Input
Amino acid sequence: MSGRVEDNSIRGDAAALIADLTDEQRDAVTTSASPLCIIAGAGSGKTRVLTRRIAWQAATGNIDPRHVLALTFTRRAAGELRRRTRSLGLRDQVAAGTFHGVALAILRSHWESKGRKPPELLQRRMAFVAKANPKLDRAVVADLDAEIGWSRARLVTPERYVQAAADAKRRPPRSPSFTADIYAAYNEAKRKRRLIDFDDILALAHDAMTNDKSFAAAQHWRHRHLLVDEFQDVNPLQFAVLQSWLGPESTLLVVGDPNQAIYGWNGAEPDLLRNIDQHISGIAVLHLRTNFRSSPEILTAAGRVLDEPAQPSARPPGDEPTIRELEG
Output
C-alpha cells in the first residue's frame, strides 16, 4: 500500500472510529476479507458501518480513499455517503455515484480517448415509444415501456422476450409477440437515429470495459476499491457491469438486505444477494442483525410476516402491533 495514507489526518484516530460500534459492526468494519458481503438487517446501522469501514480502512493504510468507488441507487445517497466520510476526517473525497452516473462518466472518457462523438441521450423512452405508435393509448404504452425496461435489466433481447416473459409469468399489455415486436422496433429506431437510452449507458459501459483491455486496466487502477450499497436492488445488467469494473487487484464490498428489495418491478434480482456465494467466488459473508430502530414487538411481528427469526432489538419493549391483511 502506498505511503500516501501515512499523512492522512485520521490515521491516529483509527481506534476512535470503532470505539462506539457493537462487536458485529466492528467486525464488519475491520475485517480484511475481500470480496466481502454484509447482510445488514433493517435498522442495523448499515450506513454507519459502510462509512466507518471506508474511514477505518483508509486510516490503517489498507485502502487509498482516492481509489474508492461507492455505488448507490440515488444521487442523494451518494451525496450523503460523501458527506459522512468527510465528517469522519477523510481529506480526499470518496468517489460515489449511481450505476448510471458512473457508467456515463466512464463512457464519456472512453469516447474521448477514441475521438468519438457521443450519441444523443434519449431522456424519455415512453414518449419515444408513444410517438412511434400513435394508435396505442397511454396506459398500453406505459406498460410496454415497463416491459422493455424489465427486459433490458434482465439481459433479455427482443428475440428472447416471448420465452423469458413466459418463464417469469409476465403479463404484457398485448401479446408477448406484439411486445417483442415493439421492443425490436424501438431498438432499431434508436440505432437509425444514433440515440442511446439509460439502459444503453450500462450496456455500452460494459462493452467498453470488456472489449478495450487497456482502457479497462486504467479504470481498474483508478477505481480499485468498489463498494455497492443496497445490493439487493441490483439487476442482472448492473451486476454484469459491476463485474466488468472489477480488476485483478480490486477489492469488493457489497451491502444489503434481501428483505428490503424495492426494485423488483425494474428487474432487480434479490437472489443475487441471497445466493451471493454462487455469483461471486470466495466471498465472505457477515451479518448485522441487531436492530436499533424498532421495539422487540415490532421485530417479532416482522419475523412472522417474513417467516424468519426475529431480529434482536436494542430498544426497550413497547406496545404490541396490530397486523391486518389488506384486500386487493
Q: What stands out?
A: The first strand starts at residue 36 and ends at 40. The mean pLDDT is 91. Residues 176-193 form the longest helix (18 residues).
